[in-house]
């Protein structure tokens, strides 16, 4: 069972115990490093801010978790953490070229570069959702007639619902599964020519190679994220902890994006090894656990993305399809009322996508550019420090 993160809206950070920098140091080093008290406060403040932000993300109810608005908040959190991380590195850029910090920060930048492909794949996934949104628009236009619903309108909506169902099929489904799922939406095709055309369209539209795997990319991002050793913490005056913290923030954000948005070879089994003595570990692990629980629900197991609005599309489209299958003309008044009720539900999902997808794509683009810029500036700082 899931263990909830035990904390109020203002978690008690004193439970973190002794400061990571209050470990026993060499007396000579301790006496000559006058910046340690300030740096220690800076590092602890960064960890508190990371903890607080992820606690707020983890405190949402199940209806908001993994919604477009929640993903947007997650990206805001990442961008804020990234800026604070960069500021700490800038304040201590003379330390970046010294061992072992040079290796730790270089490893982080190489890890972050692997996130660029994830950002590209997520932007492709957002574009794919836009294609589904166009089908929703057709359904709403066909059925949003105040004067009455005719057979032609129902037929037009039905065709859009079937096209939507085909477009939402997981590309890894076999032709057999495709036929079975098409049948559940009211149309059975003996051949898969339509699906082949769809796959051809998608192969042209995706900006990452067809052989690319989001699951393998997440594994590569998560490789070798290990807690800093005591001697590394002391040698870097705690900066090793900042890099370790940001590495886990980065890994989780990339993992959550892959979980929510359609992309190639989605896999959510990345191993999160977060020691409990890091205060930010609890809310991140809680979120990780809640998202995994969501993915295991019967109605979400075969979905192409855990985004709440995707589930809303699937659910509303299924109900609408079943309803239009049972309609006979002339349309009884109670049936027309039921259709309009389902249209209202579909309109809510459509509105969330219409208002949220463009800003979300801009945020993903900003994350991409921020990763590139931070790496460039960081490597420049290392180069200047080594001169």
TrEMBL record:
GO terms for cellular component: membrane. The keyword Transmembrane helix applies. It is found in: Membrane. The keyword Ubl conjugation does not apply. Keywords: Membrane, Transmembrane, Transmembrane helix. It is a single-pass membrane protein. The chain crosses the membrane at residues 238-261. Belongs to the ROH1 family. This is Uncharacterized protein. It comes from Lactuca virosa.
């Amino acid at each position: 069972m899931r263990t909830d993160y035990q904390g109020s809206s203002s978690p008690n950070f004193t439970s973190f115990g002794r400061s990571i920098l209050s470990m026993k140091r060499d007396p000579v080093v301790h006496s000559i490093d006058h910046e340690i008290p300030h740096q220690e406060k800076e590092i602890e403040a960064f960890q508190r801010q990371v903890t607080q932000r992820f606690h707020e993300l983890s405190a949402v109810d199940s209806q908001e978790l993994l919604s477009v608005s929640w993903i947007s908040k997650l990206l805001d959190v990442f961008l804020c953490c990234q800026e604070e991380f960069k500021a700490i590195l800038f304040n201590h850029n003379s330390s970046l070229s010294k061992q072992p910090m040079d290796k730790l920060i270089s490893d982080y930048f190489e890890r972050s570069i692997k996130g660029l492909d994830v950002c590209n794949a997520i932007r492709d996934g957002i574009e794919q959702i836009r294609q589904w949104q166009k089908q929703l628009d057709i359904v709403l236009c066909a059925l949003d007639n105040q004067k009455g619903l005719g057979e032609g309108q129902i037929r037009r909506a039905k065709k859009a619902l079937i096209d939507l169902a085909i477009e939402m099929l997981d590309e890894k489904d076999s032709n057999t599964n495709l036929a079975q799922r098409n049948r559940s939406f009211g149309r059975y095709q003996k051949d898969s020519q339509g699906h082949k055309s769809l796959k051809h369209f998608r192969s042209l539209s995706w900006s990452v190679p067809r052989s690319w795997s989001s699951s393998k990319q997440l594994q590569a991002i998560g490789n070798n994220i290990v807690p800093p050793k005591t001697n590394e913490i002391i040698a870097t005056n705690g900066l090793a902890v900042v890099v370790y913290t940001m590495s886990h923030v980065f890994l989780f954000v990339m993992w959550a994006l892959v979980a929510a948005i359609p992309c190639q070879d989605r896999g959510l089994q990345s191993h999160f090894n977060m020691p409990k003595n890091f205060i930010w570990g609890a809310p991140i692990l809680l979120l990780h656990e809640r998202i995994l629980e969501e993915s295991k629900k019967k109605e979400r197991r075969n979905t192409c993305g855990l985004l709440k609005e995707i589930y809303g599309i699937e659910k509303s489209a299924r109900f609408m399809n079943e309803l239009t299958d049972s309609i006979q003309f002339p349309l009884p008044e109670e049936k027309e009322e039921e259709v309009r009720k389902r249209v209202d539900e579909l309109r809510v999902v459509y509105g969330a996508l219409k208002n949220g997808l463009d800003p979300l794509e801009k945020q993903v683009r900003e994350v991409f550019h921020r990763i590139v810029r931070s790496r460039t500036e960081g490597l420049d700082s290392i180069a200047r420090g080594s001169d």
